[in-house]
Amino acid sequence: MPCCPSCCRTPSREDFFEALSTFCRDNGIRQGYIPSFIGAFAEAEIVDAYEKLADPDAPVWASMRSAPAPSPMTRPQILPHIHVSAGLKAQSADGRTSHLLSAKVQFLSELLIVEVTSPTMTRPRNPDLYDVPLLTFG
Fold this sequence. Notes:
single chain; mainly beta; four-stranded antiparallel β-sheet; two-stranded antiparallel sheet; flat; DUF296 domain-containing protein
């Protein structure tokens, strides 16, 4: 799998996904992965369960009230699929881990992006698995 690493820094108060998309466009990165990143968000929206799940085997986003399900990465645009673990500062750093829907950078975030030049990666939805978008190659 041919790959090339890049480093993206997003400044304070930037929209995280907008900055990431701009960086990828400016550097010609069409697909890749982020093995790790550090930073702090002033605001973040993640997939969350607001009530007891009717089907505990289904993905949490299948029962959400306020945010759309993650999009498949099959269209010619930058659609990051990012999971985060974050602590809620106002609640003694009570932790959450989930799919990141939106975020504003607090001070700075630094990401290592590994561009994958081939094979082509897509995320078609699997109707037999609650329409979860599954990573496929080729």
